[in-house]
Amino acid sequence: MIDVQKSFDTRNINIDQVGVKNIKHPIQIRERCGKQQHTVASFNMYVGLPHQFKGTHMSRFVEMLNEHEDEITVQSFMQMAEEMIGRLDAESGYIEMTFPYFVIKPAPVSEIKSLLDYQVTFISRIDGQEKNTMLIKVVVPVTSLCPCSKEISDYGAHNQRSSVTLTVQANRFLWIEDLIDIVEKQASCEIYGVLKRPDEKYVTEKAYDNPKFVEDIVRDIALVLNDCDKVTSYTVESENFESIHNHSAFALIQRNKQHEDKSDKKRIV
Amino acid sequence: MIDVQKSFDTRNINIDQVGVKNIKHPIQIRERCGKQQHTVASFNMYVGLPHQFKGTHMSRFVEMLNEHEDEITVQSFMQMAEEMIGRLDAESGYIEMTFPYFVIKPAPVSEIKSLLDYQVTFISRIDGQEKNTMLIKVVVPVTSLCPCSKEISDYGAHNQRSSVTLTVQANRFLWIEDLIDIVEKQASCEIYGVLKRPDEKYVTEKAYDNPKFVEDIVRDIALVLNDCDKVTSYTVESENFESIHNHSAFALIQRNKQHEDKSDKKRIV
Amino acid sequence: MIDVQKSFDTRNINIDQVGVKNIKHPIQIRERCGKQQHTVASFNMYVGLPHQFKGTHMSRFVEMLNEHEDEITVQSFMQMAEEMIGRLDAESGYIEMTFPYFVIKPAPVSEIKSLLDYQVTFISRIDGQEKNTMLIKVVVPVTSLCPCSKEISDYGAHNQRSSVTLTVQANRFLWIEDLIDIVEKQASCEIYGVLKRPDEKYVTEKAYDNPKFVEDIVRDIALVLNDCDKVTSYTVESENFESIHNHSAFALIQRNKQHEDKSDKKRIV
Amino acid sequence: MIDVQKSFDTRNINIDQVGVKNIKHPIQIRERCGKQQHTVASFNMYVGLPHQFKGTHMSRFVEMLNEHEDEITVQSFMQMAEEMIGRLDAESGYIEMTFPYFVIKPAPVSEIKSLLDYQVTFISRIDGQEKNTMLIKVVVPVTSLCPCSKEISDYGAHNQRSSVTLTVQANRFLWIEDLIDIVEKQASCEIYGVLKRPDEKYVTEKAYDNPKFVEDIVRDIALVLNDCDKVTSYTVESENFESIHNHSAFALIQRNKQHEDKSDKKRIV
């Protein structure tokens, strides 16, 4: 049977990324506490295709995924990128998986335990010029309470759920939970699955005592990341689903500690 | 060219709904203030197919849509359902269009005007047993402030954006704006596009003065609808995007004033 | 601390459904082959609230979820509905969980195994008049190939991915896999995670040999369900993401074998 | 009333982007044929915030939007970015609007006219170092037919809807319709709102005569863009919603004609 994909291509155009997108697969992730967590990820897997080949071999990406039934760690995920490059005869590769991740949290007063879900993405990238790099992204839901509303009102203050997205590149190992902690500590208040009445009193008053603009949230997280030697570059975004509007307030800070000059700054599009 | 759809079908199974789904088309809607509003709708258009026909004629639905460039009112939308039945040789039909709808609102203190967007759906339904019926659905974003949080806390109260969905069947004409008004008046506070500082003080204090559970919002709207003679049946739902959790609080009340006995109640699935 | 929710409500309006919506939780499902599958579900949990109570106790729903870490089967899921009714002092209840579910499928020729993901929903419902009822819904991706396009064209035929949604109420036990099988056998061709070239030839030719309109898919599935004694009522829908249009073709058949008279038919809205 | 946002910030951290996200507003776009089209856009509007300011003034973004009721062209959209910078006392700004855009297309044989909808995004960006730049993005639905499936099968070939996303930066004026044309001409076949039977025969046979991998689609579009002097940089992506899988095939090519050296290449994340 003829292999159309392998035939010679005369257009002389390299393809930056080609592969499979939005394919679901069950995974296991090691938690900071040592246990393994079962969850379900959505994968995007791409390689660079040199100009002389008509097509890549799509089925090999999916075969690779189906051979990985074991626990996926930061390390094994990075190996998957290398394996992908090898199997597809490529020089560059990009693999990304996004999954819900659960953390057990005790309520602040009653200490009743419940799960909270976060959206996590691992990205592993290899290209000819730099070695394998790995990004971790966490999306953390928090409470934000508006400092202006508190200041100008005789009582009360509008507050809302915010979604903080933190993406980091690190030079040493970081747990997902480490990144979640950094975000939650800088919000007006963190959120929980179960809150009994004494807990609800606590989170209400804590948010009121701790008002933050969307600008404050990203700046306070940036301050922590600037001091964290393990983190070499980061993007932190907050989207506040305003309780008084039908749109969001948004802020973003991006920093690459290794290349501080403006010209190297990653373009935000 | 053979008409496969028209051929005789021997399986002896009627199809309840067949047609086109999720097709976008620009529309014009008459506003309560008399102006016409341009917006974009997503349509679902179905007919019942008697058992003897192999298929319906999908292109006729889309042709019909492309012949309607004029203003769509509640009346002309109901005529579209009848026209669809006629063109497709069907005895029952269902047509639904969902669109963003904009209302100019002055801010509560500064009176600066801005648009707020609502999601609106018109549904028109004809079947052999009953005459053409029409449903209007509005999705209205509002502020809700938790009575429990206010009661038990020394200061502050958690609040959030809520999405209230009201679906009504009426025996007389109702404007979209009439339904929006009913919902907004029963929230802890209504929301706005633009709020200057004096407005923000107003909405913060108003919500704090007016705490409502998700249960209160749907009950207070139900009270108004029970007293409104034009409305013959309704469903009212509220989803509160809790600022202290990563899930929503939800409540729903459904009532058909014409057939109050339990057995006729529409099944909620 | 005062329990605001428990206070007496004078509005005299029952609430049909009140509870928590869109809360994620890890679950385990027993597969037909005997193994347990780990996956992640999104839950909606509601009870009916009698008119005399101001509010329900939202935290109890989430507490209940956090106490269930074990395998969830059809049986244990139905027990959760009863437990919910008990804990919330309610007479009616509704619990729904939606999750990705994976099945290992061998490719049709090469027999290479890969996972395919389906979206599954369990719904359990208790009300005062009828005993606990259970619905299972599966969303099955398949290939559909247009009979008209094949008939009128000299070569080729447009085909596309379709999404078939089957919801059944049964009087005896049914596996998720049983429902998936019913759907996949009636499509132009079933789909797979991994297909090597001989497999791709097989599925291409099988779909071409087996053209089906969206009407044919739902009718052929209805024929099977009509003959299946275990199934007492069903809804089958197919949405074909047409490769020649930017909209979908859609068809739906709904049947309750126990109450065949038209007046009892569930309203489709 | 105190202006909290204006107060001095001691954290010494600039914010790259701060503003409003996901705000809907009606717009008018000039069509290539000279007419004006009414549609609805979703806006994101951000400015850079210097380190010394605690916050930006969110209401000004929304006020600006509400003052623009007139037709929006590429030119007036670029002026909005400059106006935003001015009003917010900022040195950099980013404004983006995404909207459905309709084009009248005659069917290929019957010539019956119908609308087809495309998703379009305008992005305007100003920063201190470079002058105002403008990007246009179009998402174009097309038919793709698999060359491998055609080659190895005795009859038929799997095909599907694909979504091609083209983003360009240009040095001279380009119509939205110009970009749509470039994409549609390189697909296996373009798609239509209404197709009668002779049209359906035409598109079926045309796609079969014109098989393209996802790689072919992006390469053939890249060839055209490489020859187009008006386009100075581009990204072209295709996502094929495979009819034989539950995942997509994907390919992407990115090129900046002005800075060809690898180090300046925009990082793809």
Describe this structure in words.
The structure is a homotetramer of 269-residue chains. Chain A is α+β, with helices and mostly antiparallel strands and 269 residues long. Chain A contains six helices and ten strands; from the N terminus they run E-E-H-E-H-E-E-E-H-E-H-E-H-H-E-E. In chain A, strand 1 and strand 2 form a beta hairpin. Chain A is elongated. Chain A starts with 14 loop residues before the first strand and ends in a 13-residue tail after the last strand. The C terminus of chain A is likely disordered. At the B-D interface, strand 1, strand 2, helix 1, strand 5 and helix 5 of B face strand 1, strand 2, helix 1, strand 5 and helix 5 of D.
Q: Biggest interface, and residues per chain?
A: B-C, 60 and 60 residues
Order of helices and strands of chain A: EEHEHEEEHEHEHHEE
Distance between the termini of chain A: 43 Å
Rg from alpha-carbon coordinates of chain A: 22 Å
Q: Treating each run of at least 4 consecutive H or I residues as one helix, how many helices of chain A?
A: 6
Structural class of chain A: alpha+beta
Keywords:
6 helices, elongated, 269 residues, homotetramer, alpha+beta, 10 strands
Write the layout of secondary structure elements.
The structure is a homotetramer of 269-residue chains.
Chain A: E1 15-30, E2 36-49, H1 58-67, E3 71-72, H2 74-87, E4 93-106, E5 113-126, E6 133-145, H3 147-152, E7 159-170, H4 176-185, E8 189-190, H5 197-209, H6 214-226, E9 231-240, E10 248-256
Parallel strand pairs in A: 1-3
Antiparallel strand pairs in A: 1-2, 2-4, 4-5, 5-6, 6-7, 6-8, 7-9, 9-10
